[in-house]
Amino acid sequence: MDLLAMGPLDGATETALPGLQTFKGLVLGLIPYALVACVAAFLIGAILWAVGAFGHNPQHSSKGKTTLVVALIAALLVGGAAYLVGWFNDRGKEVSDNIGLSRPPLRNPEGRRPPQAALAPWRSRRKRKNSTPSRSLRFIMTGLRTISPTMAAIFGARK
């Protein structure tokens, strides 16, 4: 199987979403327009560089060089977008398979709930996250910022 010939927009056997072929057609149809925009940016950058060089204007010359480089990088990314997305998708699948990012199911195949020890990491993270005070409250608690007397009178009884 040739990886360069096959991109992430080919196949789609895992999910059959309605309108997926139309969406693929729209995305693939935008590539020529993006490449034409890159060529236009390249030409504008070349003109800016030339005008800046002949007019002894270093700002225009510098902007032209920058535009040339950005246009070339954009054309490279547009041309290789399908391959890059597929490559990063494959690497992400490898990482998630190797370190086991999936959460344990709430019910095991026998129909019983998993032991509480299996759910403990998520529960402790949830408790820690919900018990951490906000940044403004931490400033008030450490004394770096005080509550105005008016607000203290309004919210004095609340804790």
Describe, in plain words, how this protein is organized in 3D.
The chain has helices at residues 20-54, 58-79, 81-99, 116-131, 135-142, 149-155. With 159 residues, it is mainly alpha-helical. The longest helix is centred in the N-terminal third of the chain and has 35 residues, at 20-54.
Summarize the structure.
The chain has 159 residues and is mainly α.
Radius of gyration: 28 Å
Biggest sheet layout: none
Q: Strand fraction band? A: under 5%
- Number of domain units: 2
Judging from the principal axes of the Cα atoms, what is the shape? flat
Helix percent reads: 55-70%
Sequence of secondary-structure elements: HHHHHH
Number of strands: 0
Q: Give the low-confidence spans.
A: none
Which secondary-structure class do the elements indicate?
mainly alpha
The termini sit apart by 64 Å
Figure out the total of helices: 6
Topology:
Layout: H1 20-54, H2 58-79, H3 81-99, H4 116-131, H5 135-142, H6 149-155
Task: Offer a few descriptive terms.
159 residues, mainly alpha, 2 domains, 6 helices, flat
